[in-house]
Amino acid sequence: MSIPTASSNASLRAFLHGLPGVDRVGADARAAGLGTRSIKTTAKRQAIDLAISMVDLTTLEGADTRGKVRAMCAKAVHPDPTDPTVPKVAAVCVYPDLVAEARDVVGSSGVKVASVATAFPSGRSSLEVKVADTAMAVAAGADEIDMVIDRGAFLSGDYVKVFEEIQAIKAACGEAHLKVILETGELATYDNVRRASWLAMLAGGDFIKTSTGKVQPAATLPVTLVMLEAVRDFRDREGRMVGVKPAGGIRTTKDAIKMLVLVNETAGPDWLDPDWFRLGASSVLNDLLMQRQKLTTGRYAGPDYFTLD
């Protein structure tokens, strides 16, 4: 089966529908089994620090304010101001009109500024509007763009439309990295998740992301497993590494560590790096900080010790 070189529905359909089918029962069972793995003592501390360094601290609400974004960005750079050994998070993620505010706060800290774009979260707009949305965010200082695919086009088999939109947004990104949100909760089957993952990678996506966080189910372990298998197989075949970002529903340290185990056992240790794996979550950061402090001091912090996100 050859990789399609022409962006036609015929060639894309032939390739995507020629991919091996996903055994739903097997995927569910493997994800459940890996989810039972436990990590103790020193390894747990390392896993917590790694998970913190992979967080995309996010606020994507209609009521977002400049003050809320600035406070979140300050926390991203110094998650626990009382403990300078806590690593900074990977990125902050905001709407395009708040990118400049985020950029001002994170400065040269190394924390990336990500912006959703392309009529997030629905993706229901013209290509011209989506490109303009992306260009505005990049001009304001975004390091990364999180785009949403047109799920209606994908589900109706108009693969070329999705492919060409991703290509156009990638071109509008310039030097910024592109994360392609599949919104897996709307794709119905694991086979569709695998196909959408490959389609996004073939079109040039730097990351594939499960969800907007606005649709349930979001970042389940089996869906993340399917996507990790896709990036592993894509690298084996194409020689290009693509990142994975589960987003939505990751709330506890246990959830985060399950994801790290899944990455290591499915894609391999090369993906255990913030450049290649992210956790799209905000509520999980406080739990990671609380568990970290428990390992350090032997006691949990009070409920008001860490700032609310």
Overview of this structure, please?
The chain has helices at 9-16, 24-34, 41-54, 66-77, 99-106, 127-139, 151-155, 159-173, 190-202, 221-238, 253-266, 283-297, and strands at residues 55-58, 91-94, 112-116, 144-148, 177-181, 207-209, 243-245, 279-280. It has an eight-stranded parallel beta sheet. Strand 6 (207-209), helix 10 and strand 7 (243-245) form a beta-alpha-beta unit. The chain has a single domain (25-296), classed as TIM Barrel, CATH 3.20.20.70. It is α/β, with parallel strands linked by helices and 309 residues long. 47% of the residues lie in helices and 10% in strands.
Secondary-structure topology with pairs:
Blueprint (H helix, E strand, L loop, with lengths): L8 H8 L7 H11 L6 H14 E4 L7 H12 L13 E4 L4 H8 L5 E5 L10 H13 L4 E5 L2 H5 L3 H15 L3 E5 L8 H13 L4 E3 L11 H18 L4 E3 L7 H14 L12 E2 L2 H15 L12
Parallel strand pairs: 1-2, 1-8, 2-3, 3-4, 4-5, 5-6, 6-7
Helix pairs in contact: 2-10, 3-11, 3-12, 4-5, 6-8, 9-10, 10-11
